[in-house]
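Our preliminary data section would be incomplete without showing what the modeling component actually yields. Below, a chain of 80 amino acids is followed by its predicted structure, encoded as tokens that our downstream tools consume directly.
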Amino acid sequence: MHLTPAPSVTPPNLFDLTFDDTQVGITNDLIPAFKNLLAFLLPQIATQIQNGIPVDANVKIRLVATLVHVALLAQREAQR
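Predicted structure:
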């Protein structure tokens, strides 16, 4: 298995913040657009993105990143 280094993000605690944190600024009305863009960029897991990410800007970014990571791993395993 090939592991990639963790991404560098600003602010450094980004994954511990919620989308509606003032440092992030994504409100509930922007979450659908975020989900649509993410699904467009990752069409192989678009269903998991649309069904798994709530329209709630109070969700921690780490949880969404984990959902995307796990969905990508499952999709890769399914192709084997």
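Residues 61-78 form the longest helix (18 residues). The helical segments are 31-41, 46-52, 61-78. Preliminary results of this kind motivate Aim 1 of the renewal.
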